[in-house]
Amino acid sequence: MMTESGTRDPTRNASPLPWTRGVGLVVAIVPAMATAGDAPRSRRILRLIALERSARGVLLLAAGAYLITHLGSDFGRVADHAMRAVELDPRRPFLHRIITKLHRLLARTLLVTGIAASGYGLLELVEGVGLWLDRLWAEYLTVIATSLLIPVEVYELVRKPTLLKAGGIAVNVAIVAYLAWLLRRRLARHALENPPSRSG
User: Fold this and answer.
1) If DSSP codes are grouped into helix, strand and coil, which group holds residue 36?
2) Of 47, 32, 11, 42, nearest in space to 185 by CA
């Protein structure tokens, strides 16, 4: 565009920088897609993830509430009675070590563990409900929260490897990979359907 003095204004008709296009795309897509609107096949997979998150959330909330309300309990004795009830011998070395560790748990340790379990359970439940209701924010929340926790889970696996921990990490990695792929595909589709306008 020409100025009054007859010279071209270099700030007009300039191509936007690549990063400004990306920011503009995210700003445009998030409010417009509060409801994800995924395809039926994707919705079925998301429902399964929602059920898994909700179930874990409920179990963690229940466990956290139990620990917080039973700070004075002897969990070693509780574990001993539970093992005998299902006809397990608590004198076996592996089971005996578990009972011994539970005997030594302090009330402060139980309180911290109960609060952490309750907080994590609430987060899992929020993710599950949001995914079930087809909310886009729930997909972002699940990807971010689960990605941040995977390094901690890997550290625990390396320190004390178990099949249960390995299976949990595998499930979380698969969930993050699937949701990240889904979100990336949606952003690409939105960019194709709404290309940036070029002036001049």
Assistant:
1) coil
2) 42
Map out the domains of the chain as residue ranges.
38-133, 135-189
Q: How many CB atoms lie within 10 A of CB 50?
A: 21
Q: 106-115, pLDDT tens digit by residue?
A: 888 889 989 9
Using DSSP's 3-state secondary structure scheme, residue 35 falls into strand
Task: For residue range 1-54, list pLDDT tens digits in order.
Answer: 444 555 554 444 444 444 444 444 444 444 444 565 566 677 889 999 999 999
Q: Where on the phi/psi map is residue 160: left (φ > 0), alpha (ψ -120 to 50), or beta?
A: beta
Q: What one-character DSSP code corresponds to residue 61?
A: H
Q: With residue 74 as reference, give the H or E element that holds it.
A: none
Which range has the worst mean pLDDT, 76-85, 135-144, 178-187? 76-85
CA distance linking residue 75 with residue 104, whole number of Å: 9
| Structure tokens given for 51 | 């059920």
Asked if 128 and 51 count as a contact pair (C-beta separation under 8 A), the reply is yes
* Both structure tokens of 73: 């309990």
Helical residues (DSSP H) of 70-197, grouped into ranges: 75-85, 93-103, 107-132, 136-159, 163-193
CB 58 within 8 A of CB 120: no
Provide the 10 A C-beta neighbour count for residue 64: 20
Contact 169, 154 (CB under 8 A): yes
